[in-house]
Each structure stands twice: as structure tokens, then as C-alpha cells.
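PT: before anyone asks, these are the final sequences, not the draft ones from last week. 873 residues across everything. Please model them as a single complex and drop the result in this thread when it's through.
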Amino acid sequence: MVTGTVAGAPSGEPHTDDAPGAALLSLRGASKTFGPVIALADGTIDIRPGEIHALVGENGAGKSTLVKILAGVHAPDGGEFVVNGEPVSFRTPADSKAAGISVIYQEPTLFPDLSVAENIFIGRQPKGAAGLISRGEMRRQARALFDTLGVPIDPDRIAEGLSIADQQIIEIAKAISLDANVLVMDEPTAALSGVEVERLFGVARGLRDKGTGILFISHRFDEVFALCDRITVMRDGRYIAVHTTADVTVPQIVREMVGRDVDALYPKEDAVIGDTVLRVEGLGRAGVFQNISFEVRSGEIVGLAGLVGAGRTEVARAIFGIDRYDTGQVTLHGKALKPHSPQAAIEAGIGFVPEDRRKQGLVMDLSVAKNATLTLRNRLARFGLISGSRETSAANDWSGRLRVKTGSQQYSVSTLSGGNQQKVVLAKWLATEPTLLIVDEPTRGIDVGTKAEVHRLISDLAGRGIAIIMISSELPEVLGMADRILVMHEGRITAELPRAEATAELVMHAATSSEGTSTTSATLETSR
Amino acid sequence: MSAARGIRPTAPSSTGLSAIGSFFRAREIPVAGALVALIIVTTLVNPRFLSPQSVKDLMLNATIVIILAVGQALVIITRNVDLSIGSILGLVAFGTGTLFDVAPGLPIPLVFLAGMVFGAALGAINGALVTAAKVPALVITLGTMYIFRGVLTSWAGSKQYFSGDNPPEFGALSVDTFFGVPIITLVALVVVIAVGVFMHAVRSGRDLYAIGSDPDAARLFGISVSKRVLAAFVASGALTGLAGVLYTSRYNSVGALTGTGLELDVVAAVVVGGVAISGGTGTVVGAAIGAILLSTITSSLTATRVDKFWQQAIVGVLILSAIIIDRIVSARTARKLRVNEARDV
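LR: through. Structure below.
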């Protein structure tokens, strides 16, 4: 049972405040790569019995990968993993569950067609006569669980149609009924209201007092500090530090989370900022975002920062007309833009480079030429048929300008690297000569070299007078590229920062806390 | 802490009412209702429709489709499909004829066992391909449908086995009755009850629903998805094998074309019986009722002298209405979900 003596962590700084004792679970120097992408370089954490341990870090810091290693979804490529004093290597989620680890994912993973009670007990339903499942007993146990949690959910109803909060509660009920030693909660509060959060905390503290070790992942510092005993900080796939909550402050944690140099990788050149191109007034969609108002001028790059799920992509999709909005108005060059019509948006001069280029931006099996000219079909057609030679020449024109590296315009897009795929998507939209370009996470999953190229491209486009909205979860990218940064938190704009005033700490704060909380926010301009 | 955040009103839960509600929401009820209405209307038009002989024929006609539908339901509930069952049935039926030919004294239970093992083996091929290749079952079983049929065609050639070639007590299974119910229909009844109980009240049966409801969640939850899906295909194959043996007992002849096109009738019966083609919901009882409904419609339209063409069109309308009802129900729940979530922010 002595896990504190695991000798010499293979990489990263060793824990200094590590009391040698019985950690329930201890991961040292775990690494995981997916192709060329290093998702986790040094995953290090230990969870002791009877503690609530927070794991914090920016988007992409490797938290989710670490969770998936604990859950047995991914096998680590390297590092040590010890549970209850025994080295383990999980091959399936079932192995992890058998070792007493229970994971609640960010997205609840319920079976929509099964009843609530069955969702809790699937695979271990209580048995009655003749070894058959006793639904009465299952219902009784589910109801008892909900009573301890203080929620009135009908165990017989199917899971489909439950609110996210209720789904989350069911996941928790499931974890409790499993009697797990270690409970991992990946952003469990993201969709919960204040009362529900308090109830969840009550449950978590109760479990802790019974000796369960809890790993709590959250972006909300107020919650982390209110609930957790220790905090582990990660950045860029690496373990940075572990602190006892009482000995540390929010600014210190934020510094460790973002603490890297914002260097010259992000060369936004100064462009002439002209007239207002886009004006968004009071945009709202029930349950998604509220009261979104801002402007973008020609030649300006407006960065939209915030955490995953803050509603940034949803706002972009509403502007472009993919999704409906309930309130507000979008004006382009002084003219009202027809809502819910991507066709109208394209005709008015908006281009949209989506977050998931594989699913939404490209037709992977079509050729480079066909993809690059997809938005031009009507213009290239003669008598309703698309001319192949005109298609190729239009594609050559744009991919040449963007320096897309491909053997031939006729190769299928799936053969290109991520960066070059992104350039094809850009080419596709530039061919329509937009006056406003929305780019959503333009460099996600792109290697560092090509990243700089994409950045230069975007900067170049701004130089030509195109107004650009750039959604990005990478702080250095936003800070380096944007003339102005809008920060969103839970469907609202919580800060607007001009380039000169923006710092990583300010953005991070506005992204993680509801308006007007704590410490350094004194200098935040909150936009209304 | 942010005490200012909104307090979400919790939806009142009404357990008593929801039990009644879920009974009427159950997908089997409208199908069973349609079946009863069909029988009543047909009998009003043609009173001979409910004569003892006619009822016996109705049951005999439904028997084989019922067994096939139960097997198919197992597979469809896991979000897969088996299009090769017509060919499997043909192979097993012809195999049964051959068995009686080469080993005339073989005990009949052994023949049943052989047929089910043969069917299970063919189902295992399907299951192994589907779980290993990660190609949709629709494509895999479309392929094996042609392969199995090809094997049968080259095996049987122009040879046919007739009911006269089989032992008389084997053919008697489809003639003799027990309290008015043909023996082979009793077999089907036992199958429906056994599989129904398994799917309702045995853990591995419930796993099949979980897999069909959300395969990724099932995997995350630690359910061995491949193993279960393979087992569903094997079970479906075994049941198809059973149906194949019964087919040889029931019908006059078996040959290279036996069972051709049956797969679509069976998928239709399952879908009409309330098993969602996208998996996760429905019951084998529903699938069985769907099978009875479809085979009864054919008899009923004949009894009321409706043109053959209309018989097929009506089956088509039934399938479409089953699917449309399904879509409306799920669109309604999706809307409810969105409204619920809106309340949370």
C-alpha cells in the first residue's frame, strides 16, 4: 500500500509536499500522443483518500486526456500508474471501473432509450426470483439514491429529454451506487444552476468524509477554492505544480496556467481599420447565449475568447445563419441581414471557416479543386453544368495564393496535412470575396510551422480590408492576433479588451468567472 | 459563491400517471390495436375469416415470420440489421431435406438441433464480420446474403426436396394441433416468451438495448459491445435455423430459391412492430405482433378480395406510418429537451 515511495518520477518536478502515505491513485509522467499531436507529455497527479483534488488548466492543457487515461479509455504511452498500491495498465473502461474508479464525463453518457433507474444500474441490475432482474427493487434503490441526493426524478421515465442538470445528477447517482474509491468529475458544474451546484458540493463533501478520493475538474475558481483541498495545475500537456488550497491564491494559479511567453509567433501586422462592417445588437438564443452586442470594422481582427462551451461558436453560427436566434439583429454594411439563411449571409459577403474542418468545412473525399470551388458552383456553371477547366483554374488561382502544398488539384483533400486542409477551406471562402470572415479555431490540430503560416494569412487578409472574427481557445493566439478581444462566459460577453490592455490573466479571469467576482477584475471593462 | 444564480424550478414528477402514460406510449399497443381492428373488419365482411380452419391457417402462416422477426429484432435492437436471413433459411431448409435424405432414421430433435447449429454458424460469420470490420451491418449482410444464396444455388442446383421425402411425423408438426394451436406455432410462442423474458429481465439482454441506444456510451461504460453484438447475430442465426427446419416441415418443397426475399418481409414486420430501425427500443413481443399483423393482412385482403397489388402497397403504407409515428415522437422529446435546457441558463 505504500505508493509514496514510487521512486523517481520519470519527468517533471517531483512533488515536494508529498506526504508519503496511501494515495488511492497515483499517476506519474504519463504521456499520450495521437499521431503527431502530443496530447499529454507529463500527466502527474495523486489522489488521497478523503480529499477533493482540483485539476485546473487551460483548454488543451491535457486534462481530458488525463481523465481518459484514469478511465481506461486511453492507454498511456509511458509513465507510471498505481492504484491502491498496485501498478495497473487498464485496457478497457471496465478495468478502470473494476479498480474502483468512477468517471463522470463533461457530456453525460446516458442511454436515451432506457429508464433512469436502468441507466444507473445497467450491467448490475438487482436480481429477484429465478435470477431475473427485479424492476421493483431497481426502482426502490434508484429512488433511495435520489432521496439522498434530494432530487425528485422519476426512476421509471426514460432518459431521453432530461435536462443536462438532471442527466448529471443521474451520473452522480450511478457513481455513488458503484461505491467507487475514486470519483472523477470532469466539469460537472458546467450546466448546473447555483442551487444544483450547492447540492452537488454537499454530496461531494459527504463522499469525501467517507474516505472517497475525488478529482474535480472545473474552470470556475470560486468553486475550486470553495470545495477542494488540493489543486494540481497543468499547462501544455504537462504537470506544473500541486498546491494545498489554503496556501495559494487565484492570481498565482492563473499565472501558472497561462505562464508562457507570448512570443513573436503571432504576427498581426497593423492594418488600416476602416468602417464598421458588422454590427450585432442584442443577439440572444434561449439557453445558449444572451445579449450579444459588438461591432467589427474592416481590417480589424476581433478575437472571441472564452472556454469551450461559452457560446462562441453558437454566436458565430447564428450570425452566419446556420442557427436561429430569438432576439436581436445582425447588420452588415448598414443593411439588416436576413436571419437563418447561410445563403443570404454568403451573398452579403460573409465567409465562415468552421471549427471542425473535417466534418463541416471540407468534403474529404472530393478533390482539392472541387473543395476550393464549392462555394462558387453557380458562378462556374455554364448552362447548369460545371466546367472542369474553369474549376481547375479558379482553384489554382486561390490555392496558389495561399500556398497550399498539394501534388495535384485533383488529389482528394483527405491526403493533405491539417494545415493545408485549413488553407483549402480558407481558399474556398476567399474565392467568394467576403468582406467579413469568421474563423473558428483556425489552428486547432495544426503543427507549429503551419500555424504561423495560417496566422500570417489571416493577418494578410485583414490587411486587405477584410473584417475578421477569430474564435480561439488559445490565449497566445488571441493575444497576438486580435486588435480587440471579446471574452465570453456562459453565453454572455464578460469583457471587451483592446489589444494594448489585454493580458492573459485578464482574459482568463473574464472567461472563468461570472461578472464582478474576485481579485484582479477591477481593471476589467465589462461590456453590457 | 454566486447566490444570485437562478433557481431552477424542478419538474413535478408524477409516478402514478406516468405508468399509465408509458403503457399507452408503448409502441406495441397501436400495432396490437390495428391487428384487432383488422380481424374485426375482415370478419364483418367475410364471416368465414374466423372459421377454425382459417384461424389455423392464419397461425401457420404467421409462425415462421414470427420466429424470424424475433431473431431480427435482437439484431436491430443493437443498431444492426441482418439481411442474410432469407439465404440462411434457404440453406438450413435445404440442409434439413438433405439430412432426411442421407440419414432417414435420424431423431427429429437432432434434426432441429443440427438446423439451429447450422444457422448459428452462419450468423456467427455475419457477427464476426460486422464486429471485426467495423463496416455497417447493412453492407456486410447484404454481401453474405448473396454469398449464402450463391452457395445454396450451387449446392442445390435444380434439386428439390418435397414433403413426401420427409418422415411423416416431421410433416405432422405443421398439421397436428394442441388445443387448436398447431405444434409449430407453439414452438414460435415458446420462442417469443423465452426471448422476450431474456430481453426484458436478463442483464445481457438489457445490454443489447444499451448498445443500440448509444454504442459509444456503452463502450465507455465498459459493456463488451463486440461480444454482445456477435451474440445477437449468432442468436438470430440460430432462430433463423429453427425457422428453416420448420419451413421444411410446413411447405411442400425446398430448393435453391427457398426464402428468397424473406428478409425484407421480416425487417418490415419488426419495424411495424415498434422496434426502431436505429436500435435501442422496441420489444420482441412487438416484433412478433408485427409479424402476425403483416401475415394476417395478406390473408385478410385475400378474404375480402382485394387486388394483390394493393396488398403490397398497404404493407408499404404500414411501414411508413410506423416510421413517421416514430419520428414525430422523437421530435417531440427533442423539443422538450431544448425547452428544459433553456430553463437552466
